[in-house]
Design a protein that fits this description.
With about 1000 residues, this protein is of the alpha/beta class. It has five domains: about 5-95, no CATH class; about 120-230, Orthogonal Bundle (Helix Hairpins); about 240-575, Rossmann fold (3-Layer(aba) Sandwich), CATH 3.40.50; about 610-775 and about 820-865, Rossmann fold (3-Layer(aba) Sandwich), CATH 3.40.50.12470; about 875-1010, 3-Layer(aba) Sandwich (Rossmann fold). Strand 14 (about 685) and strand 15 form a beta hairpin.
Length: about 1000
């Protein structure tokens, strides 16, 4: 094999030889190379293949390659010549011709060294290639002419100049043969030759007009060729009169909507789309074409800019509803909760498309965190694909995300979300990303808002094509949106559309942008609106008369006036705000007056034992790890014997029983298949192959789907994805698990804005489960705490008043979400099943202890699964055994979670018989009645303690204390008692950094508990 030479030498050698090639065969090889490789990447794996082909050809016939290659191959085979000296420079070629990247390709021409026609052809190939690679840098994509290709302060890329290739004005009328690498579509359409002037004009039109395209970074030659086929055609788009009428109509509605709102509500914030109105006909084109190609559901996500326009003109929310919200006089009669501002609300609607087919559109409600809805959209899209049995073909559901330019470049969740593009259990068949690029972020210029030329550069990481388009050229914009729809339907991958426009007003309509961008807004003040630009074009080309256009505008305006009048009497319903309506599932209003029964969550013994056999077995030809065989066998034995069932087994029984009952179960997160603590083992790996086996996918012939999947190393994106997944159907149990509980804090936006407040703000219900490891084990500040105090701070239950009987019956219906910290496998089993066996859904923050995964005190008997339900509190089972009966109990310690094991051990060590423990398994909604009744069952308490292992300023104490004080006032004997605290002292760090200090702190608060 060839010995290595320096990279620069190989690069120079390869470039020279390709330009010097004289035979037709070698010219074809050269063309093939240039057609598939960027001039910036001469030494890719693909190029090495061509060198190897040349070497093999040389072995058969040394004359079949250029003399420079012949000399090189001979020298490389000579052991007396060092590799660095093997290269022999060929005769110089063209005076002053410097190739790509400034590498000299020759400074003189040896007589007869090269056929000039071939040399010219190859140089034109390079020029065409340069337009494909760098044409976007010269494109007229900025209506303001201050950025990108229209920025006069930046030089034109050298590769796009005649001088770079040694051409002069005299060469422009030279005829060039078309073919590989030079406008092949033009050749197929009848042109065999074109002058160099015509070729340059064509490439300028195709790559440097109102749109610029980046696609050469895509490694797939098939995908690049597909795009070239649709870009490099003599007339990329040539709309008929009817098509132009449709574009004009859609643009009229979009621009008139903004003008109407500006006229009627001049002092209101609306975050208008002026300067980017062309996005509306673009999205409608995207939807229409996608529906023609098989899409049935489109899920949209966007921030506030242009949201009302999209609601009105894309999703078709009634304009009288929008105007009613501006007037502020009407609110949904059945609405309870805070509501939200109009430019955050979502909606779902079914509307017809131009093909006559209907499409289901849903716009996801969003907070002001600009990109937080991105993963929610993808999760909902994935769930729709699942519900339609479309995960393999990925044709029926599509996500569309609208981004601001500053947010797309800067918000980390954008990258986390894009990272799902090709993951097996997260992909959605391609997302269309639309950047509404108004070239400013609030008051921040792009030069200080991102480190890349374009906001879209991040998308190159997932090999997505990037289409830049001038917002003022609505026909070009429509062409690009149509092309993106076809790309997505063909390759099922993401596409980026960067619509470059401007922002007429400041960040909102009451802002003054000239404070910070005076020159930009001087240009904006002179800008014609996109509809004026388009109507002038249509009139000048004779497609329509001014009278035709003005009459249509007047008709649209009158319809807005009619809707405005109707808005005064419009009675909105909260249903129109919903991203997903959950048809057939009772609404909160319907449930408001009902006292709902406690749904049974127990399961028949035979079903559980059958499940036990399934989850502890594997196929005969499947080799399980020897240590895992023992774990699985013990799992099966514990169920068969009916005792000693551990945490993971209880969880598996919950998942399996729900799947048997027809509930789709999806578990997602980092390392969930095995479990971070090597506890779950839901997916078995064959030790002799790459095969896997998931027992819970084989619990019954008619079972619902069980999915468990390791995620990317993402919390914000992944939690948002699972929240979106949970919105689609109440029959899906969706659980996201943190690798360690403290990692949930990187998804705090999803917790704060969607999980805690989504139902109150948007009436959007979810049953998402957050599985969060929590507990202090002396392993340092990290991975000790799931920050239970943060969840409890978001709880909406009033601690000042003991609930009435009616409110006690409605605690779960009225809460915003649930927080539990169970300590037994049976309680885990029942809480997971309770999520599905109710007539309503609430999110669940489920804390679990790493220590209790295997602790002897955390075991349950089978009868606890076949009888009973979730226990809000668990009273001490040692009364009359290890400790005295309740009548003799002097101290009651209330606690939550794994601190129970330390307390139990300490009590045993001390031989204390008069201290009892009360475990609070559910913290929110708070078990007011259960705690009251438990306290009343102790007639002679002298001391009531709340113990936690967390510092005073963390953990559940701050939440529990006022509720316990309220509860004490409702007891028979303890109205004047107060609750004493025992736990770690306040701290800035979550936990101690050493095991010794951890033990000392634990011993200190245990002494406080027992009054030592």
């Amino acid at each position: 094999m060839l010995r290595a030479i320096s990279r620069s030498t190989q690069r120079s050698l390869l470039k020279r030889s390709l330009l010097e090639t004289a035979s037709a065969k070698r010219a074809a090889i050269s063309c093939r190379w240039f057609a598939t490789n960027s001039s910036d990447n001469f030494l890719s794996t693909t190029n090495a293949t061509y060198i190897d082909e040349m070497y093999q050809a040389w072995q058969k016939d040394p004359k079949s390659v250029h003399v420079s290659w012949d000399a090189y191959f001979k020298n490389m085979g000579n052991p007396n010549i060092p590799a660095t000296s093997a290269f022999v420079a060929p005769p110089n070629l063209v005076p002053g011709f410097t190739g790509p990247q400034g590498v000299s390709i020759g400074t003189g021409l040896a007589s007869g060294a090269l056929d000039q026609g071939i040399l010219t052809h190859l140089k034109v190939q390079l020029l065409c290639r340069a337009y494909q690679v760098r044409g976007h840098q010269k494109a007229h994509i900025d209506p303001l002419q201050i950025s990108f290709g229209d920025d006069k302060s930046k030089p034109i890329p050298r590769e796009l100049t005649l001088e770079h290739y040694g051409f002069t004005e005299r060469d422009l009328d030279q005829e060039i043969t078309l073919g590989p690498g030079i406008l092949p579509r033009f050749a197929r359409d009848g042109r065999k030759t074109m002058t160099l002037r015509e070729i340059i004009a064509a490439m300028e039109k195709l790559y440097c007009s109102s749109y610029g395209i980046e696609y050469i970074h895509i490694p797939s030659r098939n995908q690049c060729d597909w795009l070239r086929e649709r870009i490099e055609i003599p007339q990329p788009y040539n709309y008929t009169i009817d098509q132009k009428r449709q574009i004009l109509d859609r643009l009229t509605w979009a621009t008139s909507f903004e003008s109407f709102l500006s006229t009627k509500f001049p002092n209101d914030k609306r975050f208008g789309l002026e300067g980017l109105e062309g996005v509306v006909p673009g999205i409608k084109t995207l939807i229409d074409r996608s529906v023609e190609l098989g899409v049935e559901d489109v899920v949209l996500g966007m921030a506030h800019r242009g949201r009302l326009n999209v609601l009105s003109n894309v999703v078709r929310k009634p304009n009288e509803s929008i105007f009613s919200e501006f007037q502020g006089s009407n609110a949904p009669e059945e609405y309870e909760g805070s509501g939200d501002v109009k430019y955050h609300l979502g909606m779902n609607y079914q509307r017809p498309t131009t093909s006559g087919k209907y499409v289901n559109l849903s716009l996801v409600a969003n907070p002001s965190h600009l990109e937080a809805q991105d993963p929610v959209v993808l999760g909902r899209t994935r769930a729709i694909m699942f519900s339609k049995n479309d995960l393999q073909k990925a044709k029926k559901a599509m996500g569309v995300l609208l981004h601001g330019d500053a947010a797309f470049a800067a918000q980390g969740v954008v990258y986390e979300t894009m990272g799902f593009a090709h993951l097996p259990d997260y992909s959605t068949g391609g997302t269309i990303h639309v950047i509404t690029n108004n070239q400013i972020g609030f008051t921040t210029d792009p030069r200080v808002a991102r480190s890349t030329p374009y906001p879209s550069d991040i998308a190159k990481a997932i090999d997505a094509p990037i289409f830049h388009v001038n917002a003022n050229d609505v026909e070009a914009l429509t062409f690009i949106f149509n092309l993106a729809a076809e790309w997505r339907a063909t390759f099922h991958t993401d596409a980026i559309i960067d619509v470059v426009g401007w922002r007429k007003h400041g960040h909102n309509e009451t802002d003054q942008p000239s404070f910070t961008q005076p020159l930009m807004y001087q240009k904006i003040a002179k800008q014609k609106s996109v509809i004026d630009v388009y109507t002038e074009k249509l009139i000048s080309e004779g497609s329509f008369t001014k009278q035709d256009i003005d009459e249509h505008k007047k008709w649209v305006w009158n319809l807005f006036e009619e809707a405005f009048e109707k808005a005064k009497d419009y009675k909105p319903t909260s249903r129109e705000w919903l991203t997903a309506a959950w048809e057939g599932f009772k609404s909160p209003k319907e449930l408001a007056t009902e006292i709902l029964p406690h749904e049974p969550t127990n399961v028949d013994e035979k079903i559980l034992k059958d499940l036990g056999k399934t989850i502890s077995s594997w196929p005969a030809d499947f080799e399980v790890h020897k240590n895992l065989k023992r774990i699985l066998t013990n799992r099966g034995k514990s169920i068969d014997k009916g005792e000693g069932i551990d945490w993971s087994t209880g969880e598996a029984l919950a998942f399996g029983s729900l799947a048997l009952e027809g509930y789709h179960v999806r578990v997602s997160g980092e390392d969930v298949e095995r479990g971070t603590f090597s506890q779950r083992h839901a997916v078995l790996h064959d030790q002799k192959s790459e095969r896997t086996y998931t027992p819970l996918q084989h619990v019954g012939e008619k079972q619902a789907n069980f999915t468990i999947c390791n995620s990317s190393l993402s919390e914000y994106g992944c939690m948002g994805f699972e929240y979106g997944y949970s919105l689609t159907s109440p029959d899906y149990l969706v659980m996201w698990e943190a690798q360690f509980g403290d990692f949930a804090n990187t998804a705090q936006v999803i917790i704060d804005q969607f999980i805690a407040g989504g139902e109150a703000k948007w009436k959007q219900r979810s049953g998402l489960v957050l599985s969060l490891p929590h507990g202090y084990d002396g392993q340092g500040p990290e991975h000790s705490s799931g920050r239970i105090e943060r969840f409890l701070q978001l709880a909406n239950e009033d601690p000042r008043y003991f609930p009435s009987e009616e409110k006690l019956n409605r605690q779960h219906q009225d809460c915003n979400f649930q927080v539990v910290y169970p300590t037994t496998p049976a309680n885990l089993f029942h809480i997971l099943r309770r999520q599905q066996h109710r007539q309503f859904r609430k999110p669940l923050a489920l804390f679990f202890s790493k220590q209790l995964l295997r602790h002897p005190l955390a075991r349950s008997n089978l009868e606890e699964f076949t009888n009973g339900s979730f226990q809000w509190i668990i009273e001490d089972v040692e009364h009359g055994k290890a400790i005295a009966p309740k009548e003799e109990t002097k101290r009651l310690v209330l606690l939550s979670g794994q601190v129970y094991t330390a307390l139990h051990k300490k009590r045993e060590t001390l031989g204390d018989k008069t201290t009892a423990f009360l475990k609070i398994e559910q913290l929110h909604p708070f078990p007011f009645a259960q705690v009251r009744d438990a306290l009343n069952s102790y007639p002679n308490l002298e001391d009531i303690v709340f113990c936690q292992e967390e510092p005073l300023n963390m953990g559940p104490y701050a939440y529990a204390a006022p509720r316990l004080n309220t509860t004490l006032k409702e007891t028979e004997k303890y109205k004047d008692h107060t609750v004493r605290f025992a736990g770690r002292n306040p701290s800035g760090a979550v936990a101690a950094g050493s095991k010794a200090l951890h033990n000392a702190e634990e011993e200190a608060f245990l002494k406080v508990v027992f009054g030592q």
